[in-house]
Amino acid sequence: MALAELKERFRQAHGEASVVGPADGRKYLPVLGSIAAGYGGIGQNGWPSGGTIAVEMHQIRYFLAVCETLNFTRAAETCHVSQPSLTRAIKGLEDELGGPLFRRERNNTHLTGLGEMMRPHLSQVLIETEAAKERAKSFGRLEDVELKLGMMCTIGPRRFVPFLQTFRDRHPKVRLVVQDGSNHQLQERLAQGELDVAIYGQPDEIDERFHARRLYDERFVIGVGPGHPFDKQNVVCAKDLDGQNYVNRLQCEFFDHARRLFRENGAKTVIVFRSDRDDWVQSMVMAGLGFTFIPEYAVTMPGLSIRPLIEPEITRSIQVVTVRGRPHVPAVGAFVHEVLAFPWMNAST
Q: For the whole model, what pTM was predicted?
């Protein structure tokens, strides 16, 4: 029977009685009175409503050792403690549970009815506790760990794939779960604890709740299909966009910022198509609907021509972001260290 089932039996028998541990903060395990509620004659006063029981882990280990050996001396040797220490621990456990667990008759030690009842429950508690400790150790060693990474949906994969391959090679037992979203969505998920770390950029300063560190800068370019007038130019000035058909990326975090700069330079574009999917935007551009304003490394469509945008040039800083002041699991620390150390200037583009 798992601990959760024991808790439920206790609530059914005794209501919402509390379970507390020793005041000195030693390692202990709450064990509820209901696990012995079915044993007749336990404790002269019965189980008090609102009573509490605190059982320490070493008491469970000693109890199970005696169950195996049916000999207090051999059990003490197995547990590497003195027999008086083991005997005191067993007596304390019996006091907590309300009755004797063993009968000692000269050379014949055997379990009482209460002891028989408690053995499978406490054995399961010990197994689950050891499993939890091992899982915690694995977590600290970055083994069998899930890391939730938020990636801004406008960041193209080709720039990040080399880094993710490197991270995977160095930390093969970290399971990376990548979730995309806008910069605002990622910020809220970080704040709510739904993400461990995020990668994004935005034209404004990042909220003070977060700690952001720059990875690399990325310029915005003008993308056009074959035969477009801009295809014959080496660069495109903002003023050249005036009157041009514009295929708009709805997820562009720089849209309002860019539109203001375009208008300041005398350019008013004509939006002819809008989509929150970059593959659709690039397909429409390739079909000749107009130009698009897109981050350089977000271009994935073969044949799409890109031209640098100048006067003014618009760039964004891609940053790794965590929640300021929040204690992080080791996997987050490893990820941040690796992503900051990665040679982004030499990454495949």
A: 0.60
